[in-house]
TrEMBL record:
It comes from Acidovorax soli. The lineage of its organism: Bacteria, Pseudomonadati, Pseudomonadota, Betaproteobacteria, Burkholderiales. This is Uncharacterized protein. It comes from the Bacteria.
Length: 77
């Protein structure tokens, strides 16, 4: 089977529901950005990055995106 250069092997379910731990991480990031080193020590979920809920800012810290903030607010309601 030949793979297209644009092929993405990562499967994304049509609807993303974060785990309790992922939601806690997003809430923590709402209060403060954390360094990549800290994120690795805390075993931050790669799913948050894959779904665009977190990103690295210009100073190299992990921060919550607007999409992540929206998800946290939706979960709190």
């Amino acid at each position: 089977m030949l793979l297209n250069a644009n092929y993405n092997a990562t499967y994304h379910a049509p609807h993303f529901e974060p785990t309790v731990d992922e939601l806690a991480t997003l809430k923590h990031l709402e209060m403060e950005n954390i360094s990549v080193t800290s994120a690795l020590k805390e075993h931050m979920s790669g799913r948050l990055y894959e779904h665009g809920l977190i990103a690295k800012n210009a100073s190299g810290q992990v921060t919550i995106t607007d999409t992540g903030r929206h998800l946290v607010r939706r979960q709190n309601n």
